[in-house]
Amino acid sequence: MTEPFRRHKVQYLAPGGLHRMAYLEWGDAANPRVLVCVHGLTRCARDFDFLARELSAHYRVVCPDVPGRGDSDWLKNPVDYVTPTYVNAMVALVARLGVQTVYWVGTSLGGLIGMTLASLPETPITRLVLNDVGPVITAVSLERIGTYVGKAPRFPSVDAAEQYVRAVSAPFGRHSDSQWRFLTEHVLRSDPAGGYRMHYDPAIAVPFNAEKERKDIELWNVYDAVRCPTLVMRGEHSDLLTRETAAQMAKRGPRAKLTEMKGIGHAPTLMHPDQIAVVREFLLSA
């Protein structure tokens, strides 16, 4: 069956040399209205299938695999798995797309990348959606994520992998069995030794775990430099983006529009119709 998207790769320069980043492209390749959707720390481009299918009639939707994830190259030096590297890769991607401006939807890490790029002078981002992320990353969320990132075992079956994904991704909230299988299958790859492994470089945990003592990460200087219209989506029970931080985001910097998704922690998957509708309304109201 023909895939509803096109697969591409773009070359970018990281501190360790040239690498290739994979991305999926939905919709009309000639559409000048481009929406870039960037996933979270251990996820992949396929997370946005539901959103991209809904919005590809309006936008050329581009979903990259962040370096070290999915079909993108692994970096030679683990310490290069940091935001500046990811921003460099995204700048190369926008240049490849041949457009001057883009809209941006970023979940967790993807939002941090977007916020950083949007804060720069002459940024190509003209409308920004931050999905359960902001300028304060809490120590408690970093501690939780640190318990599993880079530590996934080899799985004997897809069923075993799904149980793992359900456990570490429980804050995603309620999903059907078919949705959990979808969230599992696209972050797995066959292991030459047999069974399956997660579809990311375990070394992404190296810079993540570099700090001996967990403490809040504050990036207000970055957020305050953002000038484009911004939407913040927050999971009601999120441990990464607190309600207090979200409230501050509505009062300073781009003075973001806020919406809270009930019954969800970190982070909304943008698979459910109500979540997609929030993003759709914000983007199409431009």
Walk me through what this model shows:
The structure is a single chain. The chain has an eight-stranded mixed β-sheet, sandwiched between helices. It has a domain at 6-137 and 218-284: Alpha/Beta hydrolase fold, catalytic domain (Rossmann fold, 3-Layer(aba) Sandwich). The model has no long low-confidence stretch (mean pLDDT 96). Helices cover 31% and strands 22% of the residues. The chain has helices spanning 49-55, 83-97, 109-118, 139-146, 158-168, 177-185, 205-208, 220-224, 243-249, 273-284, and strands at 6-14, 17-26, 34-38, 60-64, 102-107, 125-131, 136-137, 188-190, 196-198, 217-218, 230-235, 257-261. Strand 5 (102-107), helix 3 (109-118) and strand 6 form a beta-alpha-beta unit. It contains ten helices and twelve strands. The protein is globular, with a radius of gyration of 18 Å. It is of the alpha/beta class and 286 residues long. The longest helix has 15 residues, at 83-97.
What can be said about this structure in brief?
This protein is an alpha/beta fold. It contains ten helices and twelve strands.
Features:
alpha/beta; about 30% helix; 12 strands; 8-stranded mixed beta sheet
Give the helices and strands, then pairings.
Elements: E1 6-14, E2 17-26, E3 34-38, H1 49-55, E4 60-64, H2 83-97, E5 102-107, H3 109-118, E6 125-131, E7 136-137, H4 139-146, H5 158-168, H6 177-185, E8 188-190, E9 196-198, H7 205-208, E10 217-218, H8 220-224, E11 230-235, H9 243-249, E12 257-261, H10 273-284
Helix pairs in contact: 2-3, 5-6
